[in-house]
Prior knowledge:
The protein is mainly α. It has 22 helices and no strands. Helix 18 packs antiparallel against helix 19 (340-352) and helix 21 packs antiparallel against helix 22. It is globular and about 75 Å long.
Amino acid sequence: MGLLSFFSGATPENIEKKGDKFFSSQTFGPAKIEYEKAQVRHKKKAARDHDFAGRITEKITNASEALALKHKTKGEELVEANCFNDAKELFFLALELTKKGELKAEIETLMKQTAEKNDFSEELPQSDSDKSSLDGEPLLDDSETFAALCNALSREEQKAYYGYGEAFIKGFIELNNGEFESAAESLSIALDENSSNKNFIPLELATCYLNMAEYEKARVLLESFLNDFPESLKGYQLLCDLLWILKEFDSVDQLLLSSCDEISDSAFINRLKGENLFQAGKFKDAESFYLDFINAKERDESILNSLAKTYDAAGETDKAVELYKELINTSLACGYRPSFSLRRRFADASSKAGVCTSELLDLYFGLLKEDPYNSSHYFSRISTIYSSLGNKDEAEKFKELAENS
């Protein structure tokens, strides 16, 4: 049974109004879901308005077209960022959603252009690391590993990272392998070798130091990096993470208030401001902050995620569950599988709210399969649900598994 089944009943007109609210805020995926639910409800129990059937069909079409256009635009951005596979998936989704011939033609052209592009790594400057390592041994495997790691970066970062030399390549791979001490050595060498120009190396070296609990070294690097790259969201995130470890909440406030005009009012920076309140244990203040942002600007997914987490921590479990539902259904409506962390938070919040259903049981079994390292937690929740459903044998079995995991 799907996650949409968690929603309670309502009249077709009331469900339509909820869809209208989503559509007016340009969250087209949830709008489409609500309109489709309204259409289903109308077929079971007809709306009083005789024009309802035609109107709801038109609204479903409008939401689908708006979502298709949104996918197309995002796909174009991903192409620019060299994320060709992700872009291709969005273009396919957009094609399935739209019925407009002109938009279909545009998307099909974009898909052909994307398919014709060469792998971006072939366009990037090649360093001598493709031929030899620091000790003269072939580096083909490391070169391929480095290329794979770089695929997750922006186009600007990819170009830069390929130009930092062999020591950086070695250190970047070591960092991503969790070899922090050796990575710090290699990246320090790379930083010295590239000291004449502003570069991204301090960001990676600071990550090493953060993992090594060398907090002061990491802080100096990050503050210097943000002076050179004042629009780096990664830089702000990492420095905030460090300051939260140190419980310097006032320092985070000062840092975010000093962010440059280009990003100061972005959802990202506002999420960090709310997270700072959350980290300080000021859940009600964080809740008010997020709600003010949503009411004044937009229902940004990252803000909604943070608000749901805040509700959960503040003991407002029912509100958290409702928001998690919205986020999950938004992902489903947009053709994405909800993230693991979202599904787990939803499951745990639902469990805390007293939900004990076969749907939640299936969700926990899925989480267990993906995350066997936390099996004790999932076994315990599964046992509780089986007990509530009256299946005492299964409840006892999973209770024992939880105790022995």
